Amino acid sequence: DALAELLRTMPKTELHIHIEGSLEPELIFELARRNGVALAYPDVDGLRRAYAFTDLQSFLDIYYAGASVLQTEADFFDMAMAYFRRAVADGVVHAELFFDPQTHTDRGVPFETVIRGLTRARETAQRELGLSSALILCFLRHLSEEAAFETLEEALPWRDHFVGVGLDSSERGHPPEKFAKVFARCRELGLRLVAHAGEEGPPAYVWSALDVLKVERIDHGVRALEDANLVQRLARDRVPLTVCPLSNVKLRVFDRLSDHNLGQLLASGLVATVNSDDPAYFGGYLHQNFVETFAALPALQAPQAYTLARNSIEASFAQASAKARWI
Ligand code: HPA
Ligand code: ZN
């Protein structure tokens, strides 16, 4: 229908996609074969059946196991190219990809292998698909701040290959302020700053992401609605929220898509965007997130579609000249 067509064709960015979360079961098995890695699942269907999550941690356990098949530069290239093709099909003009170096370096895969594969995919996507992109290095928050500093050291020779840093993995019990020093250092280095907060964690974690880490965007942030003062702060400063509706249902942040608060976030004047998070695990890429969410929430119509697309462009770290072209 016309709304679905609008949702697909309107120029938009994707700002919350973990590239390791785009690894489809078929590619997991292909890479396992290519690299001689043994998997705990007999086949693609057996693996897919394990994708029944009860919370963030139950997902992360399977997500990290899936990422263990990634070993060579070609593996990272193939994974990112598969995502870029799907993004273009969904009307994405610019994508900012999270990657988790510690998931790979802790298994003995060099940082250089990861960054070279992803960078070569970005260059190919720009050249062959006309797709703009950037990389955001995420620190795993269940690990120490010292480990984050070590990762930053390894990454610095590749400083011009990524635009910023983020914070992901297990949220509860790992508040943003645990990473105050490393984020301060990244800020001095001129890196852009984002952090996951308010997905499973309380509004207090959104406050400390803003006030201690000084991030420019909040990843998820849906629990901010529990704190009226926080909503006012996010609205006043136009801090974007990278909301991931299908992820929120799969990880039981909301019971049903019809319970999702995206409509309220927009109605409260917040700069919300729609994103896929880990599309291979959560039931779909960006367009699927848009169509299912708009179907479930009557408050979302064409005006909200335009607002979400414009928000995604405004909230991106792309050059101002590129943003002007897309809006
Ligand atoms: N939350 C936290 N960490 C993650 C996620 C998420 O949704 N996806 C991949 N790592
Ligand atoms: Zn995420």
Class in CATH? Alpha Beta
CATH superfamily: Metal-dependent hydrolases
In percent, how much strand structure appears in the residues?
5-15%
Extract low-pLDDT stretches.
none
Distance between the termini: 23 Å
Name the overall outline. Answer: globular
The major sheet is characterized as: 8 strands, parallel
Q: Give the SSE order as H and E letters.
A: HEHHHHEHHEHEHEHEHEHHEHHHH
Radius of gyration: 18 Å
CATH architecture grouping: Alpha-Beta Barrel
| Beta strands, count | 8
Total DSSP helices: 17
Q: If strands are numbered along the chain, what order do they take across the biggest sheet?
A: 1-2-3-4-5-6-7-8
Mean pLDDT: 98
CATH topology: TIM Barrel
Q: Structural class, please?
A: alpha/beta
Please tell me the total number of domains: 1
Function: Catalyzes the hydrolytic deamination of adenine to hypoxanthine. Plays an important role in the purine salvage pathway and in nitrogen catabolism.
Domain Adenosine deaminase: 11-327
Catalytic activity: adenine + H2O + H(+) = hypoxanthine + NH4(+)
Protein name: Adenine deaminase
